[in-house]
Write a structure and sequence with these properties.
- By secondary structure, the chain is an alpha+beta fold.
- It has one domain.
- The chain is built from 2 helices and 3 strands; from the N terminus they run H-E-H-E-E.
- Strands 1-3-2 form a 3-stranded antiparallel sheet.
- A hairpin with a 2-residue loop joins strand 2 and strand 3.
- It is elongated, with a radius of gyration of 20 Å.
- About 5% of the residues have low confidence.
């Protein structure tokens, strides 16, 4: 995104509307930036064996957290990777 560009989900907010258009509600305004942020993120998923400390440390350093989900004896870790 170049300086001054408005992300597509943010278009239609008060700064981008014609004077005769109705103002979006506060609810509508709050969802646009959240939607844009979610589009910038990718969910990371890893399955780490409970005895594999090195992989758990790596997952933690990537901002991932363990979940209560177990798959084939491995703990599922999840986190967001922002572009």
């Amino acid at each position: 995104m170049q300086g001054g560009d408005v992300p597509a989900p943010l278009q239609g907010l008060p700064h981008d509307r014609a004077p005769d258009e109705p103002r979006p509600t506060e609810h509508q305004q709050s969802h646009a930036p959240v939607a844009w942020l979610l589009l910038q993120a990718t969910t990371l998923v890893a399955h780490v064996h409970p005895d594999d400390i090195a992989s758990a440390v790596t997952a933690h350093r990537l901002g991932m957290t363990p979940t209560p989900v177990l798959l084939d004896g491995e703990v599922e870790w999840r986190g967001l990777l922002f572009r």
